[in-house]
Amino acid sequence: xxQKIVAGNWKMNNTLDEGLKLTSEIVNMVSDxxxxxxxxxxxxxxxxxxxxxxxxxxADKISLSAQNCNDNESGAYTGEVAASMLASIGTExxxxxxxxxxxxxxxxxxxxxxxxxxxxxxxxxxxxxCGESLEVRENxxxxxxxxxxxxxxxxxxxxxxxxxxxxxxxxxxxxxxxxTASTEQAQEMHASIRELLAERYGAEIAEEISILYGGxxxxxxxxxLFACKDVDGGLIGGASLKSRDFxxxxxxx
Length: 253
Prior knowledge:
- This protein is an alpha/beta fold.
- The chain has helices at residues 16-33, 49-56, 83-88, 99-104, 109-121, 134-138, 142-154, 159-162, 183-201, 203-206, 222-226, 243-250; strands at residues 4-9, 38-43, 62-66, 93-96, 125-130, 166-169, 211-213, 233-236.
- The longest helix has 19 residues, at 183-201.
């Protein structure tokens, strides 16, 4: 059975005090209210990783993720963070290829392939993001676009490596816009991604990969989205900054 996952990406939000308060609230709510087998992942900014790790160390259902890593092992890259550094402080996951990284920092599929390799080399589990803009969606080439992202960044991996990757589908046109892909649109793309994986790695492997939805998921639409056959959870942005909303999304399963 595929792992059900709800990951909270804080992006560049929260002071340390705010982040620790949010973490404590989530830890307590998950302990008291969440009875299902859902993996909860928190992705705070780099500077809070160690402190957040301390608060979740006894919470079996909650894991720690970074929001990015560099595509080099080490060196003169001022301001960057290496995968080995993340691993050394107990980070378990790393988000790679988020649409904001692709757009604002011009990250390429080839660059992300290097990041994937470094993450896996350091025993980090990548949460690999893919998705299309409104323009690509409207011109009807969205399946081909997303397939290309996955093929160029992931298809060099062996089966055992791929099974450590979580995929997050982000309809970019639905991030921070208040728009959400319909359940039909979400299921269509998640099924398409799984079919692509099956073509390359076989149906058995494809059925083991968790594919998350990452476009304006909220407590109000999470139950319907998570009920889709190929939607295994969510990569949550804005709603992850409110403990009540985030935990209600987790409880949607």
